[in-house]
Amino acid sequence: MKKFIAVFDGYRFSKSTLQYSIQVSQLAGAHLVGVFLDEFVYRSYDLQKVIMSATDATTELKRLDEADKGKRDEAVKQFREACEKAGITFSVHRDKSVALQELKHESMFADLVIMDATESFNTKKEKPPTAFMRDLLGDVQCPVMVVPKVFKPIDKIVLLYDGRPSSLYAIKMFSYLFSNLLKAPVEVLSVKEEVTGNHVPDNKLMKEFIKRHFPNVQYVVLKGQAEGSIPAYLRHHKQNELVVLGAYRRSEISRWFKTSMADVLMKELDTPLFIAHN
Q1: 204: Cα separation from own chain's centroid
Q2: What is the pTM of this model?
Q3: Is the pLDDT of residue 125 over 90?
Q4: CATH architecture, domain defined by 156-276
């Protein structure tokens, strides 16, 4: 049985993360762990502001801390009830140390991390990709499924392929985890600066490999720069795609991922992304 991690901020419980994690856990037959990053220094209120303005700061802080605990407990309750209703096996981890380090450590013992693209684990709202997400993707130890704010059932798979090991590794990892999702239509999407034909890089070898993993597949080759062509192509689709792509570690440079295609897609599209790097 596979082990998936769904990551939550108890103060801003992501129903989208919950819904996507239940869907993919059911498809993969996975055990789902709800990881609630209850970092001990993270509060839903401005600590300094309360200390400076409250008449009785000690009493006010105690009241606010109790309210915060209630919010976090309610989030765990919602997760438990949803998993029980869905009939999946699950457990709960409430990590109280530094959120980013706790999650990186947990990822060593997981097959997949599922997380809302807007999660920042601080009181300041950020547009995706948040600093937390960028730091996580730079050093995570398993694939990550980054999900949008609104849940839409996945009904198509798009595999981004540029001929490099990182893109092939992501495709392999996705196929190993989600054989049951492969009943959905699958598209291999490549970009060439100059299109002299409709062949993907290493055409014969790639098609030989893909045929064994994805029986229902189409190939699309776009002309142009990947950073512009891919979002433009995906933006007008009516289907609810899951996009599979490789990403860099901090020490790597890729032609596709100078900024990271993941960053570009998180900024421009409301599309779930399956991101993996070797």
Answers
A1: 31
A2: 0.92
A3: no
A4: 3-Layer(aba) Sandwich (3.40)
Place of tokens 């919010």: 71
Q: 161 to each of 65, 95, 166, 168, 221, how far by Cα in Å?
A: 48, 36, 9, 7, 10
- d(CA 139, CA 250) in angstroms, rounded, equals 8
Q: Tokens at residue 175, please? A: 């196929």
Q: CA-CA distance, 57 to 199, in Å (whole number)?
A: 67
Q: Is 256 exposed, middle or buried (0-12, 13-18, 19+ CB in 10 A)?
A: buried
Which pLDDT tens digit goes with each residue over 203-235?
A: 999 999 999 999 889 999 999 989 899 999 999
The answer to whether the 3-147 and 156-276 domains have the same CATH topology is: yes
- Digit-coded pLDDT (tens) for 157-185: 999 999 999 999 999 999 999 977 777 89
Strand 186-192 to 273-276 pairing: unpaired
Say what the pLDDT of residue 138 is. 87
Q: Report residue 134 as tokens.
A: 């960028």
Domain covering 3-147 in this structure, CATH number? 3.40.50.620
- For the chain, the structural domain boundaries read 3-147, 156-276
Q: Residue 157 burial by CB count (10 A; 0-12/13-18/19+): exposed, middle or buried?
A: buried
Per DSSP, the three-state class of 157 is strand
- The region, left, alpha or beta by phi > 0 then psi within -120 to 50, assigned to residue 138 is alpha
For the cut 60, the answer to whether the pLDDT of residue 44 exceeds it is yes
Cα separation, 211 vs 85, whole angstroms: 37
